Description:
156 residues, mainly beta, Immunoglobulin-like, 5-stranded mixed beta sheet, 4-stranded antiparallel beta sheet, 1 helix, 9 strands, elongated
Amino acid sequence: MMTRRVLFPALLIGLILAVAVSGCGKKEEPKPPVQQPVQAAPPPPPAPSVASVTLAKGVNITWEAVNPSTQFKPSDRINALVKTENVVAGNLLGVRWQYVKTSQLVKADSIVLKQNGPNSSSFFIERAKGLPPGEYRVDVYLNGAMGKSASFSVAK
């Protein structure tokens, strides 16, 4: 019984001291949350595009137009040198050659681009019997969307 009487006042004194110590201290105000700097999202990559279409009688091994022109003879091979920018390997580049007077499709062709970034591609049209004289247009499409056009004429 003696242990109980000594132990109880000791516990009571310990409890009072604990409350007093915690009550006497200065209360800390909560710290505001640390704000992380807002990082802007990187800009989206530039969209693939058809940069230019050059018509010529030839194309050399460095993908430059040889004898650029918009006037051709029926027997000429007509080359369309197409430069693209910001493309991704797998993009589809296509051309449609049309006779303007009747809107008749003369030839269509397409290729799948094999490298990222700028590309140079060449398409051509020719006929063994020669193209009929008249006005023509080549429309260039990138991934099915119209990119650029170039007009030319065939005369004897």
